[in-house]
């Protein structure tokens, strides 16, 4: 239930930000950041948010985000907004 609520939060926030992603039934999903994923990973890390760059998996513009507690999910979205500007 927590994961489902977290996914819905992320999907709604990313839709408002007009950022593409892959829906999932798991506790993690991929976001298309439309720029080098390694750079977004580094910028988010500086904001205290840990994601995974998917460059080494052949997806150079995607990051993987794990769903967490709601406060963590909110922090992730806020950091992503800052980094994507």
SSE pattern: HEHEEH
Tell me the number of strands: 3
Main β-sheet: number of strands, strand sense, barrel status?
A: 3 strands, antiparallel
Which segments are poorly predicted (pLDDT under 50) over 5 or more consecutive residues?
Answer: none
Helix content estimate: 40-55%
Give the C-alpha Rg.
Answer: 12 Å
Termini gap? 32 Å
Strand content: 5-15%
Q: Count the helices. How many?
A: 3
Which descriptor suits the 3D outline? globular
Structural class: alpha+beta
Strand order of the largest sheet: 1-3-2
How confident is the prediction overall: mean pLDDT? Answer: 97
Topology, pairings included?
Blueprint: H1 2-16, E1 28-32, H2 37-46, E2 52-53, E3 62-66, H3 70-84
Antiparallel strand pairs: 1-3, 2-3
Describe the protein in words:
This protein is α+β, with helices and mostly antiparallel strands and 85 residues long. The protein has three helices and three strands. The protein has a three-stranded antiparallel β-sheet with strand order 1-3-2, with helices on one face. A hairpin with an 8-residue loop joins strand 2 (52-53) and strand 3.
In short:
The protein is an alpha+beta fold. 47% of the residues lie in helices and 14% in strands. The longest helix is centred in the first third of the chain and has 15 residues, at 2-16.
Question: What are the defining features of this structure?
Answer:
three-stranded antiparallel β-sheet, 85 residues, 14% strand
